[in-house]
Structure formats: C-alpha cells, structure tokens
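Predict the structure of Glyoxylase-like metal-dependent hydrolase (Beta-lactamase superfamily II).
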Amino acid sequence: MLTFQSYSLGALQTNAYVVVNSERTNAVVIDPGTADGALMRKLDGLKVEAILLTHAHFDHIGGVDALRKRYGCPVYIHSAEKDWLTDAGKNGSNRWADVTPQITTDAPENLLTDGQSLELIGETFLVKHTPGHSPGSVSFYVGDLLFAGDALFHRSVGRTDLPGGNQEQLYRSIREKLYTLPEDVLVLPGHGQETTIGDERRENPFVR
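Done. Here is the predicted structure for Glyoxylase-like metal-dependent hydrolase (Beta-lactamase superfamily II).
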C-alpha cells in the first residue's frame, strides 16, 4: 500500500506531497513549491521516479529545478502549460516579487493529457484535466487518493482571477471530473487541509 507525506512550503504555504510505494523504495513528488530540506531528506535513499505538477504557478514549481538535478527525475505537466516552466511571466513569479524570486527551469520532459494513465512506483496515476484555476490544471487520482492541486479545497475552490482562469470552467471540472469519484476518496489539495469527495459534494458552498 502506498503512503504519502505532505509539506506546507513557501510564502503561500503550498502543499507538496511525497508518495512512496509499499516497499519504501520508490517515490514521486507532487508540486514541490520549494527545495525544502525536510522534503529532500525524505527523498534521500529513494528512487525518485517523477515530479508530477498539478499546474505551473510559481508556488508549485519553485523546487523543481533543484529536485530534478539532485535526483535525475523527469517532470510531467499538462501540455497547455508546457512552456510555463521556462517563462517567469506565465508562471507568475515575475509579478509577485514581494514573495518570490523569478523562477525558471528547463522545459518538462513529459506532457500530460486528460485520461492518461501513468505507471509509477508500481501504481497507476490517472490524469484528470481539471482546468479553471489555470488552463493546464490537472488532478492525479491513485488508489483512494486525489491530488487536486488548486481545483478543489476544503469548503472552497481555486481562484480564477489569474491569467487563464475561468470560473465556469472550474465549476464544470469539479462537477464532471471530481464529484463523480467515490465519496470516500481523500482529496489532497494544493493548499490547506485534506477533505473527501463526499464532504465537498455535500458541504462545499461554491460547487454542489
């Protein structure tokens, strides 16, 4: 059975996740917002198979460069944001100088599409394209876990006032791609506390 550990990183307290296989030998990292020391120590001694990005806003990608150089792991991101890693204007880091330096890194090695299955750490990660917060936002569904990025939060949803955001598109993504999952699926968001699909279907004031 896979396990995960979360790290709240950076000025915006972005949740990064390290997901480890049952043998405790291999891992993937989801949304490394910074090259955090505790996160790196968790990875040392493991084979890091991939960095998975729910989207490429600066607070989710700040640690990508350091991690892939240290562990030699490929980066996966949706094709709609294929050039955001190399462009500080598109990832937003050049507009938030009070909270982050400009962030750029090499282009991703792998581009994601909706419905794609990724075989990593002995598990199948299903890619759900959930745009609205950003054009290339995705959620990763594996086992009974959903890594939702900035689409769905505990009693909230992602902001849609940034470039490429679209409120109606986000609501549609949540209703059609996420609320159709089993109600006991654990939602692991990009910020804040975890929740479940069932709880959000019943209690989320933005999308029901």
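The mean pLDDT is 97.
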